[in-house]
Design goal:
mainly alpha, Tyrosyl-Transfer RNA Synthetase, binds adenosine-5'-tetraphosphate
């Protein structure tokens, strides 16, 4: 059976970008790829690469786990776990740090972007993050990893690391393939469509969270940056903000961009934005209801306990063999 692995960092409140670019794709994959098993984790160790407030972090970990289920993942076909609860992730992460070069890590655009924004307090774990990410994936012999556009480079490095390890120590890790969605691959910031929508962004107007109420969602869409052209058309070069809204519209409703453009050919941005706001509300409201029902339930705790047990069993056996390959320990 093929395995798909993916995770989300609890660095902020989940955004529409996380939903459309990752969680929704994951739900679709689960419906389509019935012969695959799904390992999904909350990447709390990655979150602490930048300073977090402990009680907020702990709350977000459960929020993300609950949201995964609320967004429609089949809990009976998902091994859902918290990254820090499976210690072998860290163990392998360290071994993989010894199989990746400084130059490779320095080339990662996400690291370059983050250092550019926050020049004074860059942690060493932010720099070595791709080695831990590689461990998250290859420890479980993932065949596929669904990733947004922005994570493509990290996955490429994961493949490089896995191949390097296999070449040096003999075939051992499965080399994962990326699964990149066609629509919704990259959702941009509503106020600055030059950068992607991010949950840790300081300007709340730039993103919609999965917890926003209907009025907030509509207000944020209404104030999203567009242009003075005034015609609903998909032109990412000259109408970047509008192109982003069209991408969101298409992705959230599972429609084609050209059909939406046609629908609004005699209309204006105001009507378009009102309908888009409503379309987002229609999708997020039932998700929020499900989230409220599950987040404090014992069911969620059971799902996470079960996930931890399955992931640990696999990881324990894999690491025992991995350490033997590398020559660590006594036997
Ligand atoms: N704007 C986006 N459009 C499409 N997909 C996105 N993802 C994130 N932002 C967008 C996808 O969500 C998954 C989980 O991401 P993550 O939390 O592990 O890391 P990230 O990509 O760094 O997400 P954020 O929201 O931008 O977090 P911060 O602000 O902490 O850096 C990934 O599959 C990602 O592609």
């Amino acid at each position: 059976m093929k395995r798909i692995v993916s995770g989300i960092k609890p660095t902020g409140t989940l955004t529409l970008g996380n939903y459309l670019g990752a969680i929704k794709q994951f739900v679709k994959l689960q419906q389509k790829m019935t012969d695959c098993e799904f390992y999904l984790f909350v990447a709390d160790l990655h979150a602490i690469t930048v300073r977090q407030v402990p009680h907020e972090l702990r709350k977000r970990i459960l929020d993300i786990a609950a949201m995964y289920i609320a967004c429609g993942l089949d809990k009976d076909r998902t091994v859902l776990y918290i990254q820090s609860e499976v210690m072998q992730n860290v163990e392998l992460g360290y071994i993989l740090q010894s199989n990746v070069y400084m130059g490779e890590l320095e080339r990662m655009t996400q690291f370059k972007d983050k250092t550019a924004k926050n020049e004074t307090s860059i942690t060493s774990s932010l720099f070595t993050y791709p080695a831990l990410m590689a461990a998250d994936i290859i420890l479980y012999d993932a065949d596929y990893v669904p990733v947004g556009d922005d994570q493509k480079q990290h996955l490429e490095l994961t493949r490089t690391i896995a191949n390097r390890f296999n070449n040096h120590y003999g075939d051992f890790f499965t080399v994962p393939e990326p699964l990149i969605p066609e629509v919704g691959a990259r959702i941009m910031d509503l106020q600055n469509p030059e950068k992607k929508m991010s949950k840790s962004d300081s300007n709340e107007k730039g993103y919609i969270t999965l917890f926003d109420d209907p009025a907030t969602i509509k207000r944020k869409i209404k104030s999203a940056v567009t242009d003075s052209i005034g015609i609903v058309n998909y032109d990412p070069k000259n109408q970047r903000g509008l192109a982003n809204l069209l991408t969101i519209y298409a992705s959230i409703t599972d429609r084609k961009i050209e059909d939406i453009v046609k629908q609004y050919e005699d209309s204006n941005y105001k009507q378009f934005k009102e309908d888009l706001g409503q379309a987002i509300v229609d999708v997020l409201q039932p998700i929020q209801e499900k989230y409220n029902a599950i987040v404090k339930s014992s069911e969620l705790q059971e799902i996470l306990n079960n996930g931890r047990e399955i992931a640990t069993n696999y990881a324990f056996k894999k690491m025992r063999k991995c350490k033997r390959k590398v020559g660590l320990g006594r036997k």
